[in-house]
Amino acid sequence: MKNKTRLLSLVAAAGFSISGAVNAAEVDLRFAHFWPANSGIAKTLATWGETVEAESNGRINVEIYPSQTLAKATQTYDSVVRGIADVGAIIQGYTANRFPLSQIVELPGIVQTGEQGSCVLQKLYDEGELDSEYQDAHVLFMFTHGPGHIHTKGKAVAKPEDLAGLMIRRPTVVVGDLLEGLGGEPVGLPAPDMYSAMQRGTINGVTLPWEAMASFRLNELADQHTQVGLYSLAFVVTMNKSTYARMPEDLKKIIDDNTGMRWAEKLGKAYDELDLVGVQQAKEMGHSITVIENGADNPAWKPTLDRVTEQYVSGLSAQGLPAGQVFERAQVLSKACGA
């Protein structure tokens, strides 16, 4: 599998191609994502491409474009819809108000681990609860990371009051609401911009799973960590509909065979394993780690988090969305997937 960075103008012009003299493959798929190329999640996503190539006996070629080299993190979904990329992995919450039902899994208490959360999200999609949000793309699989925590530079956060006046990067509006309710000042930034923002002092901290603290080198800057299980993000890997439709039926089957729960749980499990790497790195660097007893259910944290959760679900319901139904189903699946 070719894992290269190319000029966007050349890539965009290349399009979905049928084999010629240069490439023996019948189908070339450009796979865009925002993770650094050497990160564990990027390597796990690369195995999807390697598997597809192997099972097609080389008739499908997958080229990975990491680190936003083909599309910005906030634009990857639309880039897949428009055909700039053939496949893309995104954080749903990076596109505000576009995937509100999918983002229900971000709420506290639903996700305990990446593998369990990925099971919840994929089942919600497989059961048809989220169909309306993905009409313009061909969904391959969904996943979540494990619990997201609070990581700060210089100031420990042991209780919500300690967040007062702190500028904390939030990945999505939902997480921003949680932080604001707790007294922090949320700042919206895509993951690749976090390091420079903390380095400059634009932000005092970030909300991230342990995996990302290592992948995005934030352990180099943040030396205080609050393990609270505040949230978990939803991710989806989609394929351009026209790209999929043009493939021969036997190659479509290769894609279909690498769609759904198996890959959802594979990515979730990878996050869980990489979380151990991130926390171990922080320990070896001598950082301070505050573990909140019972996490988001701790009495000092729970009332605010419950209130924000209720506001999010009721707000979507007021827009005519079946948020209550999806939230209740997510809670049931949370237990079933963790069994």
> Based on the structure given, which CATH architecture of the largest domain is correct?
3-Layer(aba) Sandwich
Helix tally?
A: 12
Which fold name fills CATH's third level, the topology of the largest domain? Answer: D-Maltodextrin-Binding Protein, domain 2
N-C termini distance: 37 Å
Coarse structural class: alpha/beta
CA-based shape: globular
Which percent band covers the strand fraction?
15-25%
Sketch the major β-sheet: 6 strands, mixed
Round the Cα radius of gyration to an integer and report it: 20 Å
Q: Which regions have little confidence, pLDDT < 50, spanning 5+ residues?
A: 2-22
Spatial strand sequence of the major β-sheet:
7-6-8-5-9-11
CATH class of the largest domain: Alpha Beta
Helix proportion:
40-55%
Number of β-strand runs? 11
Average pLDDT across residues?
93
Keywords: Signal
Signal peptide: 1-24
Pfam family, one: DctP
Protein name: TRAP-type C4-dicarboxylate transport system substrate-binding protein
